[in-house]
Specification:
mainly alpha; 3-stranded antiparallel sheet; 5 helices; 68% helix
Amino acid sequence: METGDKKYYKIREVAELTGLPLSTLRFWEQKFTIIKPRRNDRGTRFYTVSDIEKIKMVYYLVKEKGLKLDAAQEQLKHNHDGVSRHAAAVDRLKAIRKELVAMLDALNRLR
């Protein structure tokens, strides 16, 4: 889930970055008060990098830790910094794992 240099992302781009369906993003926007994308006059959502980071934290709590939505909301409310650090660490570990798997595949092709 790597963001680029853009200032704003449309919902479809966020869905591609996070691997989440559009409907889930819309639903989480209603359930989690920390996710507040900006909207233009036509209602188009524009997510900042900060919004995407918050979505990643919710993803970590709900999809990876298996918390119910209410429990995830409480975690974010009472331990926002801790959740943020854990989600970032998991993201980094996934990137490292991906890189290591690519290296292992490259080594296996050389044999």
